[in-house]
Amino acid sequence: MSSKKLIDAIKEKGKNIEAEMSFFEHLEVLRWHIIRSVIAIALFAILSFTFYDFVFNQIIMGPKNLDFWTYRMMCKVGDLMNLDGFCVERIPFNIINTELAGQFMLQINSCLLMALALGFPYLLFEVWLFVKPALTDVEQQSARGFVFYATVLFIIGALFGYYIVVPLSVNFLANVSLSQEITNQITIDSYLSTIATLTLGCGIVFLLPILIFILSKLGLMTPQFMRASRRYAAVIILIIGAIITPTADIITLLTVSAPMFILYELSIMVSANVKKQKDLKEKEFYNS
């Protein structure tokens, strides 16, 4: 009996050692994914630093200039529809620096933010490479195109944030005036963080259909539940829109929220398609 216990103990120890080796092997694989991601972000940061004049003047300072694309389109729409006050004629605030290393940190932070935005598709690719070996062939087949669709949604969301949400927010906040005695002197940190938060925030919000697809695959989300929760989803979307847009302007809030309502309906369609495929596979399994 004692020899049997000894053999069982040895087998159990072997299983533990094997599991530990598997765990450390996964850590090693994850480490290399992280290293490659950091290298990619560093390369994009160097690229942004090389062309920093364009990054600063055209991208960062773009929403403050009256010749920005969105403001020009607003003026054209205002002229065509005879809407008084729709054309943006002034953005009354100055950008200042209040710290000794402020402009240096501005260059570093803006390059890192640009690198994060440009490198986001590659980060998704590294995530996919890390998760892919743990999926079955069927799961890999159904998740094919994850990087492509997520990248497209993120780009659309980021562009929507930069060209719609950012200029509307900047224009509204800049023209809020409680007294002529108060002059808007905005720090460069506040200006940069606002643009980055709105742009990247919209890009991430637009990934909702991908999240719903994953949750539906895991069986944690169903189209019936999403349809029944439309009213609650509407409230949550409006709250998210209010958080993303730092304005009290109802037009800006609705402009931001409208695409999220569309994304929610698209997510219901995605979840319904996943459920339909699951039902077909179950039917084929029971009929075989």
From TrEMBL:
> Does the UniProt entry include the keyword Transmembrane helix?
yes
Q: Which GO terms describe its cellular component?
A: TAT protein transport complex
Which chain positions lie within coiled-coil regions?
Answer: none
User: Any idea which GO molecular function terms this record carries?
Assistant: proton motive force dependent protein transmembrane transporter activity
Quaternary state and interactors: Forms a complex with TatA.
Family according to the record: Belongs to the TatC family.
| Name of this chain's protein | Sec-independent protein translocase protein TatC
Q: Which gene is this protein's source?
A: tatC
